[in-house]
């Protein structure tokens, strides 16, 4: 076989290897993002479980709430 044939085969193999390495880098980056999101979720849930309990009591205001409405809408 001629030398140009093997050069072409080597070039194609190199291009395929480069594509494979690029695909692995893409998958690694996606896996890193998923890992970061899972870690953030775990930290958030741990902080939520350690947070003190909060009780909120709502009462009616002491006076009529003031609103910025035109005088034509006031009855």
Order of helices and strands, N to C?
Answer: H
Q: What portion of the residues fall into strands of 2 or more residues?
A: under 5%
Continuous helix count: 1
Structural class by SSE content: mainly alpha
User: What is the number of beta strands?
Assistant: 0
Q: Helix content range of the residues, please?
A: 55-70%
Mean pLDDT: 86
Biggest sheet, in brief? none
Uncertain spans, ≥5 residues at pLDDT below 50? Answer: none
Oligomer: single chain
- Which outline best applies? elongated
Distance between the termini: 98 Å
Rounded radius of gyration (Å): 32 Å
Structure in words:
It is built from one helix and no strands. The model has no long low-confidence stretch (mean pLDDT 86). The longest helix has 48 residues, at 3-50. The chain is mainly alpha-helical. The termini are far apart. The protein has one helix at residues 3-50.
Give me the secondary-structure topology.
Blueprint: H1 3-50
Task: Write a concise synopsis of the structure shown.
This protein has 75 residues and is mostly helical.
Characteristic key phrases:
75 residues, mainly alpha, 1 helix, 0% strand
């Amino acid at each position: 076989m001629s030398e140009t044939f093997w050069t072409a085969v080597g070039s194609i193999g190199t291009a395929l290897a480069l594509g494979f390495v690029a695909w692995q880098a893409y998958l690694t980056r996606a896996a890193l993002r998923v890992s970061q999101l899972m870690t953030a979720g775990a930290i958030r849930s741990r902080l939520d479980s350690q947070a003190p309990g909060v009780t909120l009591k709502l009462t009616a205001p002491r006076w009529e709430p003031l609103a910025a409405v035109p005088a034509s809408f006031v009855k």
